[in-house]
Specification:
- By secondary structure, the chain is of the alpha/beta class.
- The protein has 11 helices and 15 strands.
- It has 2 domains: about 200 residues, Alpha-Beta Complex (Quinone Oxidoreductase, Chain A, domain 1); about 130 residues, Rossmann fold (3-Layer(aba) Sandwich).
- Helices cover about 25% and strands about 25% of the residues.
- The longest helix has 14 residues.
- The mean pLDDT is about 95.
- InterPro entries: ADH-like_C, ADH-like_N, ADH_Zn_CS, ER, GroES-like_sf, NAD(P)-bd_dom_sf, Zn_alcohol_dh.
Length: about 350
């Protein structure tokens, strides 16, 4: 089979790989959709100092059907034809983090991540431990399952870290695919969302996904705009998704406010003396647990949320170079390889 690799220097190259076979406790998943994630660009541009490279199949938003089952996998865990999402991390499976659905935080010291140290989903087939599989609700497309696996799931994870956002005023900074997911999910959870970006096209989409108000921070003073919209109180909560607007998060956060920072690289700096009286809670979030991935999918399915509309372009594997040239410009929505 052929898979997409990133040798660096903004190149996406198809390379031949053996068709994978499942070992004990493993399954082979036939890809139906493999999403393009903003973090892919660190590898594509050659700016990441860990993992990936010319010999690793890329893609960490996989979704598809069980194609083959290895020895020791019981029928109730996986059967050929099952529609599945993949929680794209696995670890020792015995530490407290793994056992609670957080293998990316494994204490065992050998976290496996597709696209970094395991083959990813930008290929027709992918082999994974059966424990990484989650059922894809019948109402959801494979594209939706791919998005929930990382981009949309990352927004959900950040919102869960913030706690109950229902009835709050929440500022979502950045309206790329993750931020737009945050706007969509937070609105469905009952928040009044103020969406912020520097691109009017993205802000128009944010309104379509449930934003109550929008602010173009390239044209307006973001602090004054949010204070005006909140009667001078500031936001109850902030979800920062861009990785470059952390200072803006602190400008708009009201007293007793909570802020979650999920965008990378995300430098942040403040002087305690200047802010301690605000009684803020500041936190980060790293994607989501396998338990929350399933909850996110069920929530989206139950409310018919328009996750598929996050994707503005679909590609085939042989369009890899063109697809990543387009995605690298970061001027449109989300892309996906469909099989």
């Amino acid at each position: 089979m052929q898979g997409i690799t990133f040798p660096g220097d903004r190149r996406a190259v198809l390379k031949e790989f053996p068709d994978p076979l499942p070992g004990p406790g493993e399954v082979v998943v036939r890809m139906r959709a493999s999403g393009m994630c903003g973090s892919d660009l660190h590898f594509y541009r050659g700016s990441a100092s860990f993992g990936g490279g010319a010999d690793t199949v890329q893609g960490h938003e996989p979704c598809g059907d069980v194609h083959a089952v290895g020895a020791g996998v019981p029928r109730e865990k996986a059967a050929v034809g099952d529609r599945v999402m993949i929680h794209h991390y696995w670890g020792c499976e015995t530490c407290e983090h793994c056992r609670s659905g957080w293998p990316q935080m494994c204490d065992g010291g050998d976290v496996r991540i597709p696209c970094i140290n395991e083959p990813g989903g930008h290929a027709p087939y992918m082999v994974v431990p059966v424990r990484t599989l989650l059922p894809l609700p019948d109402k959801l497309s494979y594209k939706a399952g791919a998005a929930i696996g990382c981009g949309t799931g990352t927004a959900w994870g950040g919102l869960k870290r913030l706690g109950d956002v229902g009835g709050t005023t929440l500022v979502v900074l950045g309206q790329g695919p993750v931020g737009l997911s945050g706007t969509m999910l937070a609105s469905a959870l009952g928040a009044r969302v103020i969406a912020v970006d520097i691109n009017d096209t993205r802000l128009d989409r944010a309104r379509e996904f449930g934003a109550s108000e929008v602010v173009n921070s390239a044209e307006a003073d973001i602090r004054e705009a949010v204070l005006d919209l909140t009667g001078g109180r500031g936001a109850n909560a902030v979800l920062e998704t861009s990785g470059v607007a952390n200072a803006d998060a602190l400008k708009v956060l009201g007293k007793w406010g909570r802020a979650c920072f999920i965008g990378l690289p995300g430098p942040i700096e403040f002087k305690t003396e200047d802010v301690y009286k605000n009684q803020w809670t500041l936190m980060t979030s790293w994607t989501l647990s396998s338990i929350e991935q399933r909850r996110c999918a069920d929530f989206i399915a139950a409310r018919d949320l328009p996750v598929d509309r996050l994707f503005t372009r679909s590609w085939s594997l042989d369009q890899a170079a063109e697809a990543y040239e387009w995605f690298d410009r970061q001027t449109d929505g989300k892309g996906v390889f469909e099989f």
